[in-house]
Description:
Rossmann fold, 259 residues, binds S-adenosylmethionine, globular, two-stranded antiparallel sheet, seven-stranded mixed β-sheet
Amino acid sequence: MVNPIESQWEANSQAFAELIDQKGTPHHQHILNPCVEKLLGDVKGKLLLDAGCGEGYLSRHYARKGAIVTGVDISNALIEICKSLPSEKLNYHVGNICNLDFIADRTYDAVLCNLVLLNIPCLKEALGEFYRVLKPDGSLVFSIVHPSFNFYGPGKWEMGERDIDTKRRKGLFFKVDQYFDERIYDHIWKTRAGDSFPQPMSFFHRTLTTYIRGVIESGFFISEIEEPKPVVDDDFFERERRIPFFLVVKARKPSFKST
Ligand SMILES: C[S@@+](CC[C@H](N)C(=O)[O-])C[C@H]1O[C@@H](n2cnc3c(N)ncnc32)[C@H](O)[C@@H]1O
């Protein structure tokens, strides 16, 4: 049976790759990526798994920084795009991060899972697999859209007038409701030109507690947690300076465990 989430990413692969444009959106570049890079630390010579690598721009980035990277993604079309882009020291696999049985236990020094956990139904399984494939003392760094302020999920900005300079509507305040109601919801992404992606995308709203508990119950201990702010002083990010857009967590596999 075809996995419906896999089909969505297949159908949206080209639009997604164009949106990412080998560098990420302004939100990625100026809010999320600097934080993820800080938490990952020095990757030189390290074996890094990019779990849910998309079109692979972060795999390529960390390979350029000296990591030996494996990118895994459920979308064959996205992995084909990864392979078509010039890169070194990189392996790519089509695979489901909820069952990484093609990877041996204790293989990687670090796992990066950037903006993927909110797209999968199997959070517990993925965290268990990350724990299994990490070496003792290895690190997991994952990011999600902040579950408390996710405007695709339980929250919404109450909007004001459009700002003439930034062309964005001013955010008046952020309202949240039904936060405890964990659920799947669809969202239609837009291309840079403002056109809709071919298919809606499924997202999973979970509470902060579910994420953090899932990490701890998988055997990790949490070493860092960040709600990154924009690193540039630009009016475009006026709303993102008031409320965190992303949440980034670093978790470690203890050094004393044998699995
Ligand atoms: C929002 S994109 C993030 C891609 C990349 N990490 C980035 O930061 O650009 C989510 C990615 O997760 C992939 N994905 C969704 N479910 C997956 C699964 N179960 N196993 C592996 N990849 C999955 C999608 O195909 C997509 O490439």
